[in-house]
Amino acid sequence: MATTAKPKRMGMYENVKNQFDKAAEVMNLDPSVKKILSITNNEIVVHFPVKMDNGDVEVFTGYRVQHNNALGPYKGGLRYHETVDLDAARALATWMTWKTSLAGLPYGGGKGGIQLDPKKYSQAELERITRRFTFALGDNIGPEHDIPAPDVNTNAQMMAWIADTYMSTKSPAERSKNQHVVTGKPVGSGGLEGRDRATGFGVVVTIEAWAKLRGVSLEGKKYIVQGFGNVGYWSAHFMNKNGAILVGVQDATGTIYNAEGIDPEALLEYQSKNATIKGFAADYDGDKFFGIDCDIIIPAALGNQLTEENAGSVKARLIAEGANGPTDTEGEAILLANGVEIIPDILCNSGGVIGSYYEWLQNRNGEIWTMDDVITKLRRKLEEAFGKVVDNADKYKTDWRTAAYIVALTRIEMAYKQRGIFP
User: Taking each helix axis from N to C terminus, what angle separates 371-396 and 86-102, rounded to the nearest 10 degrees?
Assistant: First the structure.
């Protein structure tokens, strides 16, 4: 009996290119600039050996893709996940270029990581892997050249190891000048107060801006979150402060639902004790997660989650993209046709890179900023970017994602036109 093959899911890089091509056409982007931005500048692949706790040696493959640096140093996270490959790194690096430009930062886009499941390694092994990866990257990263940050399955501790390893390769007199080679470090190692919550806070600031624009209150609004890591938790934390009700959560360990509401603080405590969200509330069919009856969906996990296969089941009015690339172009077409609004990733989750910029500045200038400084500055930057996206959507009669791209691309196009192409 013949079976119908499932349609091949779009690759992340193909998704980025589709979004870029659409925006370039709508804004009539200069063809020469389009050629430059259609490709990455550098793609670095490193293979390096690491001794495991049992004495065996494993060889790992690490990636760093540098998309474009017309506006400043490459900037973007490092992730430790089995899905890390060149295609994913290219897509994520490209999104970072648009994201930093949209936020008005003096950065370009980079991204990378190692293809591994960090749960399979001890803390000591992860430290050796991280330090060896940093050493293997060598001068391909640097505080004025390419500045990594945390991403999926990487954290402040890993950034501290990267900074320490990188600084150790410099002469003693130069070491302290290189502290800002990474951002997202622990506060005690030059990190920024509030950087841990910057992405999730930014997601909620953009949702608040949407609610204000639409004349609605977030009080009593039901929402679901996919991914309960750093971004998912902080998004839920700040949504609850607005009086919104979390009814569903999905992550790699399971899917839970409670129509009466889920307390994000209690869930975080449960998750840290049990290494799972499963069992905290009623189990729910993971395949039907995005169809839960709610007002707002916050995808804060991996890319390509909302596709043509499940977009039609969405009942929410708004999708706030806490993750990078959670909606593919086919899924987006269905959502927009059904009247679902989308706050695009390059706007919605840009609080993280804006926070990283403040940390970079703090290290560079030898300053120490307070949490209040950071939160105030973050909110101002995000609301300003949100306003520009809404204005351009009206001007070009287009959707918010395309409008966000137009804002970002206009700034890069201007840089190339003013500077010219060497030689």
Answer: 90
